[in-house]
Amino acid sequence: MHIDAGVYFWKYEKTIQNPFILANRMLQQNYLPEQITQTLHRNGMGGCLAVITESEEVETRFLSELALTHPEIRGVIGWIPLYDPKAVEKIQEFQQYSPIRGYRIDSAGNDLPAREVMELLQASSYSIDISLLADSHSSKINKWLGKYPEQPFVLEDCGSPDTRQSPSKTWESAIRELSKNQNLNCKVSGLLERSNAKTWKPADFYPFLDILFDSFGSERLLFASDWPFLLVSGMYLQWKSLLEKYTEKFIEEDRDKFFGENARTIYRL
Prior knowledge:
- By secondary structure, this protein is α/β, with parallel strands linked by helices.
- It has 10 helices and 8 strands.
- It has helices at 19-22, 37-42, 57-69, 87-94, 115-123, 139-147, 169-178, 206-216, 236-246, 252-267, and strands at residues 2-8, 45-51, 73-78, 100-106, 127-131, 153-155, 184-188, 221-223.
- Strands 1-2-3-4-5-6-7-8 form an 8-stranded parallel beta sheet.
- The chain is globular, with a radius of gyration of 17 Å.
């Protein structure tokens, strides 16, 4: 089964603080499951993983409620303040939401969760999605990953490289260093919307994909669309087709891992 490991939903309000939404008028509207259901089906996707748009507890509750009424949402990556002194209590409180499969951390190495929080996350089989900027100093994150070898981590958006130009040495170095942690996986997403808008070519992304597949291998990479963010630069079909073309010479087992099996394993879908 193919799974999209990164889809976002929101009801647009002017209080939204997500900078990408604020910078793109076409994103300043509601994006809900009924707007992507047919797209998922047409592209052979058996479901998706919903990820919070903003670091707010209410976002976690919102997505969890959506998942209960929309079977195409196979799981939710939420947010709670994992670095907060009451994080353990928060995790236990949110266990009432069965769709939750993990939590997201927006951090360059600051405000990392305490050991007792990490132990509870691992015991609860929750993953941790990490959002990093391409120029983030990754050494502290790297050490953190090494402390919890049994905890599954997932790097979002390939570490957010600038795809308007060739891969930077800084980004490539960070990816290769981080990927040495066998407990770190990576979503292949976020590349399209960071490209040269409507003038990009599939070949523009191949150097990035070469580095990612060489570093992580097919067993630790996950297909993700970043819908609806990718709409600022293209269509769902274009992104899926681009990656199908790139992986067409892979053995079937590796393609299946990339397009769904890895997500099913990591997120218990």
